[in-house]
Amino acid sequence: MHAPSTMSADARKKTLALPGDEGVFFFITADMAMFALFFLVFMVGQAQAPDIYRASRAALDPALGLLNTLILATSGWLMVRAVEAARREQWSAARRNVIAAALVGLGFAATKAFEYHAKISHGITLNTNEFFTYYYAFTGLHFFHFVIGVLVLAITQAKLAAPEGEKTRIWLESAAAYWHMVDLLWMVLFPMLYLAGGTA
Amino acid sequence: MRLSSTAAYGIIAALSISSFALFESQGHTLILALAVFAIALVKIATILNGFMHLEWKHRPFAQVLTGWLVVVGAVLAGGMFALPWN
Q1: What are the residue ranges in chain B where pLDDT is below 70?
Q2: How far apart are the first and last CA of chain A?
Q3: Do B56 and A21 meet the contact criterion of CB atoms below 8 Å apart?
Q4: Which of B17, B28, B51 is nearest residue A180 as measured by Cβ atoms?
Q5: Best of B20, B22, B34, B44 to disrupt the A interface by mutation (most A CBs within 10 Å)?
Q6: Does pLDDT of A24 surpass 50?
Q7: Alpha carbon of B33: minimum distance to chain A alpha carbons (Å)
Q8: How far apart are the C-alpha atoms of B24 and B21, rounded to whole Å?
């Protein structure tokens, strides 16, 4: 005979609950599926014209890609710290960490702006070849997600200035999940565009 | 088991630097390309667990995103096998 569970229905529901809003996780999943298709398209293109892709990849600076990876990882870590602080109801600490995450994240924008400027000033544009069409399209779309993320973080820090308990915590967790998706997609874009596949 | 956020951050940063250093020092080979992508997938799994706090009990999202990792891993590996390597 089993002992009756001591966990209440509410506690069980809370244990199983997603860290954030279900709708946001649905969006994240759909968005990631779209990027998976992009990765497939890129791989097919690369297999059909490897020499063009390798020669083009040589024009990219992997050190900048690494820098952006570390910036996004650091910003993501600060967002987790914000979520952890909010779960302890330390709202001021949560807000400080969200602001820090946004400020560190802005380093990604600066690096990307520098990189785009360097490419364009050397005449490398969206129309240069297929590799750079994908490079600008994928990194541009990723950057668009990044910009939305920064706006979400700005709204989040404002909400944390006047927290409303559970409601604010769920908002913060959802914002963090979105921000981690931006980070996560870059973890594939960086090796795919800058590293693996070889250079000529 | 959930990784602490600081441990996850340390793993992601160390793996990012390792894959870059590996790429810079060892040149371009199929094995290296596969290793770089394998490292990327480990980093993603670390973000899902240590940053997003997504665990197996969070169905269906944990299962779907794990499936995404497998599919993307296959796409990336397939793309590398399709390339000519010297």
Answers
A1: 26-27
A2: 69
A3: no
A4: B51
A5: B20
A6: yes
A7: 5
A8: 5
With an 8 Å Cβ cutoff, is A197 touching chain B?
yes
- What would the pLDDT profile of A91-100 be if each residue is shown by its tens digit? 999 999 999 9
Contact A199 B28 (CB under 8 A): yes
CATH code for the domain defined by A35-195: 1.20.120.80
- In eight-state DSSP terms, residue A89 is T
B80–A197 C-beta distance less than 8 A: yes
pTM (two decimals): 0.91
* pLDDT at A20 exceeding the cut of 90: no
Q: How far are the Cα atoms of A92, A109, B14, B73 from residue A197, in angstroms, in the given order?
A: 46, 26, 22, 14
Domain definitions of chain A by residue range: 35-195
Residues 6 or more apart whose Cβ sits within 8 Å of residue A122: A59
A195 near B CB under 8 A = yes
Say what the ipTM of the complex is: 0.93
What does the domain layout of chain B look like in residue ranges? 5-81
pLDDT digits (tens, 9 = 90+) for A30-56: 999 999 999 999 999 999 999 999 999
Neighboring chain A residues of B85 at a CB cutoff of 8 Å: 198
Nearest CA in chain B to A189: B40
Place of tokens 């990765």: A39
Q: For position A10, what pLDDT does the model report?
A: 63
Number of CB pairs, chain A paired with chain B, less than 8 A apart: 131
The partner residue sitting opposite A191, judged by closest CB among B37, B54, B65, is B37
